[in-house]
Every structure is written in structure tokens, then in C-alpha cells.
Specification:
InterPro entries: EamA_dom (IPR000620), EmrE-like (IPR037185). Its main location: membrane. The structure is a single chain. The protein has one domain (about 1-280). Helices cover about 80% and strands about 0% of the residues. The chain contains twelve helices and no strands. α3 (about 55-80) runs antiparallel to α4 and α8 packs antiparallel against α9. The protein starts with a helix and ends with a helix. Mean pLDDT is about 85; it is low at about 275-280.
Length: about 280
């Protein structure tokens, strides 16, 4: 899961580069990301001699639609409000997944993990809400935040689907339905890009697929709350990358919020494993 967060951060940087340096829209980067995902999954299935099987179709539809829409919103937010803010807003999804998982998936969430959720929420508040108050939050901020809500539901779908479907089938559903969402608006831009732009687009697709497969596979072995909290390492990494490579501002509130999130992630992971060891 930690490795997945690192690859997702690399993907975010590449999306920002594609938009800022080569003028490629979020629709096009999303399209290539989904197409590359489908191709890689099909190649893996052929190589493994294990055809894709879609068992729990209602949850696959849920994962595909919500997850695909969340990716499109995330990519668009990166191009409009920057890699740091877009990631932080989108990665509120651990809060939604953590709060919903006991009701939808019957996860047993220990008090210590609930404390970590509350602490992480406080850290996110420091980053999301500007010092001027909620009134300074723009519609782009709210759009990125809606992507976090969609991602929270998609993560719960992933966890549920591991009871019946493979990681490849789960990821294929996201890429397939995500491609349906973006294919029409992406055609406006065409495909006449310089070779270096295509290399960036292909890199986005490959890195995103690796990260998604890692994350999806990891959810076979950890519950939704722990996995979501570990994924919150991604906004911490992206805040730093945004500051270093794109000169995005990093306020004292952001630093404090990132620190709280990092501590919450670490504590939740250690607490969850400790309780599982006691049960064993």
C-alpha cells in the first residue's frame, strides 16, 4: 500500500507536467490512463493464461463508475488547482471509507483506529479550509472534494469485490467505465502530440496501472480503514512534490496538517496489526 502511494504520487507529477508543459487536458490524460490500464490487464491475463472473469457485477459496476469518475475529477483538479491541493481534497476518501466501512462491509474498527480517523480529519481540515474560513473555498475545491467522496465508495467496492473477483477484473472495471466517461470529450483534442508528449502520456498510464494494481491487491489483506489511512501518505508526499517541483505554496497550516496525517497513518497501521496479532 505504501509503494502504491509512491507510484500514485509519481503519476500526479506526470499529469501536472502533461498539462503545464505540453498543454494536454485532463480528459486526454484520463483517456490514455484508462486505455493503457485495459491493455496491460489484457496482456497480463493472456500471459498468465487466466481469462478475466466478472462475478459480482453490481459491485463491479459500482467500482467502475465511482472510481472512473473520481480519476477524471482528480486529473482535472490537478490541472486547475495544483497537485498538492487536488491530492489533499481527493484523499479525504479515507474519512468516508472509514466511516462507512463498518456499515457496508461489517469491518471491526477498534477505538484506536477511530481516534486515528478523527486525528486525520483534523489534519485534513487544517489543509483544506483556508485561514479565511469556509467562504474562501472555491467550487473547484468542492469539485475535488466530491472526488474524494466518490473514491471512498470505490474503495469500499474494491474491498467487497475481493470476496469474489480478481484484482485484474476489479481494475478493468474502473478503466472500462472510466473510458466510457471520458472518450467523447477527449476526442475534441485529437491525437496529434509530439513524441515527448506521448511518452509522458504512456508513462502516466503505466505508472497509474502499477499503482492501482498494488493498491487493489493490498486490500485483499488489510481492511478498508487501515488501507485508506495508509493511502493518506500520498497527499503528504504530493504536498512536498508540489512545493519542490511546481513552487506551490506550503503554509504552516499545511505542514501541521501533513504531520498529523502522517502520525495518524503510522499509528493506525501499528494499532491494527497489534490487535490482529493478539487475536491470533
Amino acid at each position: 500500500m505504501i509503494s502504491s502511494a509512491i507510484f500514485f504520487s509519481l503519476m500526479s507529477v506526470l499529469v501536472r507536467i502533461a498539462a503545464e508543459k505540453y498543454g494536454i487536458s485532463a480528459w486526454k490524460t484520463s483517456e490514455i490512463r484508462f486505455v493503457m490500464g485495459i491493455v496491460i490487464i489484457l496482456v497480463l491475463s493472456i500471459w498468465m493464461r487466466d481469462p478475466l472473469r466478472f462475478v459480482n457485477r453490481p459491485w463491479l459496476l459500482s467500482r467502475g463508475l465511482f472510481g472512473g469518475a473520481a480519476v477524471c475529477i482528480y486529473f482535472y483538479a490537478i490541472t486547475q488547482i495544483g497537485i498538492a491541493k487536488a491530492t489533499i481534497y481527493t484523499y479525504t476518501y479515507p474519512i468516508w471509507a472509514g466511516l462507512l466501512s463498518p456499515f457496508l462491509l461489517k469491518d471491526q474498527i477498534r477505538p484506536g483506529v477511530w481516534m486515528a480517523i478523527l486525528a486525520a480529519f483534523g489534519g485534513l481540515y487544517l489543509i483544506i479550509v483556508p485561514s479565511q474560513g469556509l467562504g474562501a473555498t472555491s467550487w473547484l475545491d468542492l469539485l475535488a472534494l466530491s472526488g474524494g467522496i466518490l473514491s471512498g465508495w470505490a474503495i469500499l467496492s474494491v474491498k467487497k469485490l475481493h470476496e469474489t473477483d480478481t484484482s485484474r477484473a476489479i481494475l478493468f472495471s474502473q478503466c472500462f467505465f472510466g473510458l466510457i466517461i471520458v472518450v467523447a470529450p477527449a476526442q475534441v483534442e485529437g491525437y496529434s502530440f509530439p513524441p515527448v508528449s506521448w511518452l509522458t502520456l504512456l508513462a502516466i498510464g503505466i505508472v497509474a496501472t502499477i499503482a492501482q494494481l498494488q493498491m487493489t491487491y493490498a486490500y485483499k489483506f488489510i481492511n478498508a480503514t487501515e488501507g485508506s489511512l495508509l493511502s493518506m501518505l500520498n497527499p503528504v508526499i504530493n504536498v512536498l512534490l508540489g512545493m519542490i517541483f511546481f513552487h506551490e505554496p506550503l503554509t504552516l497550516r499545511s505542514i501541521l496538517g501533513c504531520t498529523i496525517i502522517l502520525i495518524s497513518c503510522t499509528y493506525a497501521a501499528m494499532f491494527q496489526h497489534a490487535t490482529e496479532d493478539v487475536r491470533r
